């Protein structure tokens, strides 16, 4: 257990979710409750083993989500979505998705998937993009409301994903744009 705790603490420090307090700093990361950050890391550490995510209801997707360079670049990676959790409830211990990147190595030319982030997803109550509930989670305003995203696995159903809010938490890979930014410039999708 001690080793597990050390891994989690290191991940939180690297990701920027936890910062050592000093009198001069006032980063938004300091607004994150340390116990909450540790709790998120604790419940998602098992998914460092990628095979564990589908067993808990996270649907493995085959496509990597990235942003064109002209729009700012960066990527989210591969989403493993637990659509049974798409509802009006948010629980930091029950994230709606976990995100992976695929890294190639000499021993794995095709690449292995590495856990990088956790995503929370809240269905917009009235399904109206013009009204904003301003949900907050982990002390952070969630992004949205936004329309559902097209997905290659659902090519014929444009309404498969509801209008919703999202919050990405880069708890397993540091994001230089901030631990709650949508896009991570250090995550790359394989060339199409
Ligand atoms: Ca939920
Ligand atoms: Ca709305």
Largest sheet: 6 strands, antiparallel
What is the global morphology?
globular
Stretches where pLDDT is under 50 for at least 5 consecutive residues are: none
Helix content: 10-25%
What's the count of strands?
A: 8
What is the subunit arrangement here? Answer: single chain
Provide the number of structural domains.
Answer: 1
Radius of gyration: 17 Å
Give the strand order of the largest sheet, numbering strands 1, 2, ... along the chain: 1-2-3-4-8-7
Nearest-integer average pLDDT: 87
Bound molecules: calcium ion
Distance between the termini: 41 Å
What percentage of the residues does DSSP assign to strands (E)? Answer: 25-35%
Order of helices and strands: HHHEEEEEEEE
The number of helical elements comes to 3
Q: Label the structural class.
A: alpha+beta
What structural keywords apply?
192 residues, alpha+beta, six-stranded antiparallel β-sheet, two-stranded antiparallel ribbon, 15% helix, globular, binds calcium ion
What do these coordinates show?
Helix 1 crosses helix 2. The longest helix is centred in the N-terminal third of the chain and has 14 residues, at 2-15. The protein has helices at 2-15, 34-44, 52-55, and strands at 59-66, 75-81, 97-105, 108-123, 136-137, 140-141, 143-146, 164-169. The strands form 2 sheets. A 6-stranded antiparallel sheet has the order 1-2-3-4-8-7, with no helix packed on it. Strands 5-6 form a two-stranded antiparallel sheet. It is 15% helix and 28% strand. It is globular. The chain is of the alpha+beta class. One calcium ion (CA) is lined by residues 124, 126, 128, 131, 145.
């Amino acid at each position: 257990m001690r080793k597990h705790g050390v891994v989690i603490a290191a991940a939180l420090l690297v990701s920027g979710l936890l910062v050592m307090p000093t009198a001069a700093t006032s980063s938004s990361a300091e607004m994150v409750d340390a116990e909450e950050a540790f709790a998120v890391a604790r419940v998602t550490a098992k998914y460092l083993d990628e095979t564990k995510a589908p067993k808990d209801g996270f649907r493995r997707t085959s496509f990597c989500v990235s942003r064109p360079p002209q729009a700012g670049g960066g990527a989210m990676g591969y989403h493993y979505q637990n659509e049974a959790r798409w509802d009006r409830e948010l629980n930091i211990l029950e994230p709606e998705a976990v995100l992976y990147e695929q890294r190639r190595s000499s021993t794995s030319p095709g690449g292995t998937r590495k856990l990088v982030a956790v995503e929370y997803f809240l269905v917009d109550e009235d399904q109206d993009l013009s009204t904003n509930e301003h949900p907050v989670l982990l002390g952070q305003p969630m992004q949205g409301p936004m329309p559902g995203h097209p997905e290659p696995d659902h090519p014929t159903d444009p309404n498969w994903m509801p209008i919703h809010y999202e919050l990405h938490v880069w708890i397993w890979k540091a994001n230089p744009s901030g631990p709650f930014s949508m896009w991570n410039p250090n995550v790359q999708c394989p060339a199409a």
